[in-house]
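Final report, Chapter 2: Outcomes

The project's central promise was a pipeline that accepts a single protein chain and returns its three-dimensional structure in a standardized token representation, suitable for archiving and comparison. That pipeline is now operational. To close this chapter, we reproduce one record exactly as it appears in the project archive, with the input sequence first and the structure output second.
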Amino acid sequence: MLLGSTRALKVWAWPAPIDLRRGFDGLYGLVEQQLRKEPLSGDLFLFTNRARTGCKILLWDGTGLCIFQKRLAQGRFANLFTTAGNPVSVSLTASELNLFIEGAAQVVAVSPREIRPQNLIAKVPRI
């Protein structure tokens, strides 16, 4: 399943397990109060349970909040949990999110991080 295919899409992963019985309001509150992100920004917000067998993604599609949920038939999702007491969001690319959803054992950087256009202009040879 492909959720977003543009580099401009930002994906934020909650780095601690949550109770996946949380719905729209519970996940919205985590994003807004704990991650200090805007839930209606169009960014994707990823959450997993303690066993890492299920995940939810909260997103705003422009007309309403959506939740995508998946439970693996076997195996576990990659470990995005931190050991620190104060969770900080983990940033993923759309490609990394899609690998995660497919059940990849670990999330590895699969593409370069954001490249700013102004840096490219200076490197283009003039003819």
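Archive annotation: The chain has one domain: 11-123.
This record, like all others produced under the grant, will remain available to the consortium after the project formally closes.
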